[in-house]
Amino acid sequence: MPFFLFGWVMGRALGSGSAPASIIYAADLLGAGVGAAVSYVLLDRLGGFATVFALSALCFASAVTMFSLSAGYTDRQRRQSRSVGLVTGIVLLVAVPLGIWLGAETDAWRLDFTGMKGVAPDKTIVGTLKGKPDARVIRTEWDSFARTDTVSTSDESRRIMFVDGGAGSYMYKFNGDLGSVAGLARDIEFLPFAAGPADKSIIVGAGGGRDILYTLMAGAKEVTAVELSPGLVKSMRAFADYNGSILDRQGVHTVIGDGRSVLERSRESYDLIVLDLVYSQVGGIGGQALAENYVFTREAFATYLQRLNPNGRIIIISHQGIEGIRAYYTGFESLLRTTGGKPGDVARHTALLMAPEGSASPNLTMSIIQKSPLTQQQLQLLKAGTQSLGLNALFLPNSNEQLLKPLLNGKTGFDQFVRDSEYNVYPTTDDKPFFFQVEQSLPVSLHQWFIVIALLSVLFAFFLWRQEIAPQLLSVRAGSTADGGRTPIPKRFGAMSYYILLGIGYMCIQTAIIQKTMIYAGGPVLAAIVVIVTMLLGGSLGSGIAGRFKVSVLVAVIAVIVLTIGLIMLDFLLGDRLIALGTITRMAVIGIAIFLLGILLGIPLPAGLRTEERRAQGSSPLFFAVNGIAGVWGSWLAITVSVTSGLTITLAIGCLCYAVIVFERIIRLRRLKHERIGTNES
After folding, report:
1. pLDDT tens-digit profile of 634-657?
2. CB count in 10 Å sphere of residue 548
């Protein structure tokens, strides 16, 4: 509903004739870019609900501004309206901070989880609070990435930390003496920690600190704990008395960021790299946009192997069997590529275990990928641990090799062996990083999204028929030559194709660039905000240029294609050098490049609207709406193609849309040239 009303206001503004479409569009993009940046900052300061409350005041202020500037026809009425606007503005300046303060004091921003119904199954905090009468939220921390809730139960030995109500991790009561948590050695997850050296360890996704305790118990002297959620780290430090200041314990170094980015920039070597349930679930069930996909790609595992000591190992602990097997196969393939060895030799570097149904952690899988072959001592420890804990050994060298038998006996190659699986367990790449998409078919959410967009498009087409096409057809049938100021139907459909291609092309390029930027940003939210803000601000400048100067649309569209292809080539050729830079420098370089792209992307739409207004005044809202509908289809297409074919193909489709516009423009210019020549000859 808010966006429906935003669209209505935008349509009225474009159709009013009070300002050129390029100026209105430039102001809209400028406000959107500033608003996105402000919301990113406010989320860290105020939290989600208070930020929405604060930003809603801007919408109210815009209405007051319009009223104060335009209401009334006499000087007295104008003075009165401006006085009302001034008073309302002062009230807003007082009311918004007061409202935010009162909301915090009265706990108005609190979510009642126990009162929720029909909640998605991945929001496990609801089940925890409903299933345990003594469970309660004792702290909530917001940041731009997610919301972190700390829940206490009757079990005083540990608390649960939920990120966006989904991914939960345990924070244990710890007094600084490892003997006080010795019981953790009986956990299923501790087994791979104990199976080898751990003197220098790094944990990707430290969560509530359990893996830090595991590594310390395994003999670690140095631990680097990497956590993507700043709110979770802040909450952990707020409960330092409870968890023994585990994040700041001597020998423990805590880093807020993306684990892969930290390892990419590191020049250290480690005995142990831990990837334990690295999935925050902030993208929702079936969501991919904010999932930690890049942690599990082929290129990521290549980095991990480079950062291991000669006898170092990677531990991957996964939610369930399919994800665990996919991670195992990715590590296996990385070893094949790194060592150049045969599958039978590489297999001796690996192990794959699974907790059975009915256990404390059903279907939890544990993979070990070691740089050197597993020693006999390690194999004996893993075998004994598997038996004592009741685990299923899916693969253990020299004892449980059935899983890889077709591969080890040389009857099939690795690619064919992995692709023959019922599920999509083939290793992911940076170009096609969707690790958690294990179904062979498209996600259900994409099918649902398709249906919704199709219904909205049918509704729009019906509206278009009633308001635009039917009146012209009736006029033609009646023999009337008057067109009511409308553009003829054939020309209108030709113009619509231009805006449809712009909408689809823009969204394909933007969506793919956001995904590609994640690997450099070290976090999905920072990647999204850098791309969206710089593209919007650049688009605003481009729209202003289109309105102020006579810019060739053909040249601008060609430049979009050239610059997009250039960015793809730079990513391929200089990506390693870029990721080695500091975060601020990396984001500045990426931001400047995308800002320049945004300028070019911001020219074609307002330039086209200006042309349509010359043909038929008041037609801008229609074509703006067509572009909006096409943008929604473009976003669906971008995600679908990215999941099935990769991000480079998605960018190529975006460039193809702009290339079709170029082709159409060239044909039109040639036709006009021939018509002029024919007219002159006549």
Report:
1. 999 999 999 889 999 999 999 999
2. 12
